[in-house]
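Is this the right way to post structure tokens for a design question? Let me know if I should format differently. Anyway, here goes:
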């Protein structure tokens, strides 16, 4: 009788475990979309999500936040697959045909916390889609070629970092973005220039913007921090390469506040616009 009771209890627990696993396995991709939206303060959406949390697809949408009217859908659907390698290690592959090769990431969960690492990746993104983020991108109507290079990124929970023997991050940038042939609807017929954005996403979240060449000179520094939500800030300057370039006047006024020129400055001084986003 005791053996039969034990088998009955074991069978009930096993059935409950199977049912629970089936329920978890069947969680829809819409739940992933809801998490991404909340984490980005509704600036990044996975619209029309299909499939399940571990194998799904959606349209990537950029917006200016909750209620933003400038949402822009990226062309083609983003697809992802999540598969277990070990009970505490999961691999995720994200593919988007227009961007290039699929991106691979590995999530590890243990007693010391969690860590997320990505493999090196190179790809392209449509610059015009930034208009969905709202001002000033929606008015600038930027076009150009954007090439993104990611190194070996590794993000860890606070507990995991605390228990890491050598937590000091590498000084080498792990994000490298090259922008070429940048143009804006506010400066018709003018190639604004070529620019680079380099930063350390996995460690400090800091990045730097610099001009390689062009009619519009941009520089500055910023930082993106992901806690419960993603928040970014940027401070820099913008100015025309030539003081008599009237075609950039409207553009510079829209980018930020034009700093007043000292009375002692000569007429050839190029006005500087302060960038603060």
């Amino acid at each position: 009788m005791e053996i039969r009771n034990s088998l009955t209890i074991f069978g009930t627990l096993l059935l409950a475990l199977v049912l629970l696993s089936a329920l978890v396995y069947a969680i829809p991709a819409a739940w992933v979309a809801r998490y991404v939206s909340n984490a980005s303060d509704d600036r990044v959406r996975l619209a029309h999500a299909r499939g399940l949390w571990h194998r799904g697809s959606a349209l990537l949408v950029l917006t200016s936040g909750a209620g933003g009217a400038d949402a822009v859908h990226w062309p083609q659907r983003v697809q992802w697959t999540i598969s277990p390698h070990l009970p505490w290690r999961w691999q995720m592959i994200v593919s988007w045909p227009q961007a290039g090769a699929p991106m691979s990431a590995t999530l590890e969960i243990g007693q010391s916390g969690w860590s997320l690492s990505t493999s090196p990746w190179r790809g392209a993104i449509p610059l015009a889609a930034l208009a969905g983020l709202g001002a000033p991108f929606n008015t600038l109507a930027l076009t150009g070629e954007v090439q993104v290079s990611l190194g070996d990124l590794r993000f860890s929970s606070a507990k995991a970092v605390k228990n890491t023997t050598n937590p000091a991050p590498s000084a080498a940038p792990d994000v490298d973005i090259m922008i070429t042939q940048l143009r804006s609807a506010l400066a018709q017929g003018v190639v604004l220039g070529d620019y680079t954005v380099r930063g350390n996403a996995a460690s400090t979240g800091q990045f730097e913007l610099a001009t390689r060449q062009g009619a519009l000179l941009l520089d500055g520094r910023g930082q993106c921090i992901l806690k419960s939500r993603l928040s970014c800030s940027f401070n820099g300057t913008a100015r025309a390469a030539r003081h008599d370039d009237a075609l950039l006047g409207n553009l510079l006024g829209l980018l930020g506040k034009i700093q007043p020129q000292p009375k002692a400055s000569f007429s050839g001084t190029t006005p500087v616009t302060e960038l603060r986003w």
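Format looks fine. Someone answered above. Worth noting: Confidence is low (pLDDT under 50) at residues 159-170. The CA atoms of residues 52 and 180 lie 38 Å apart.
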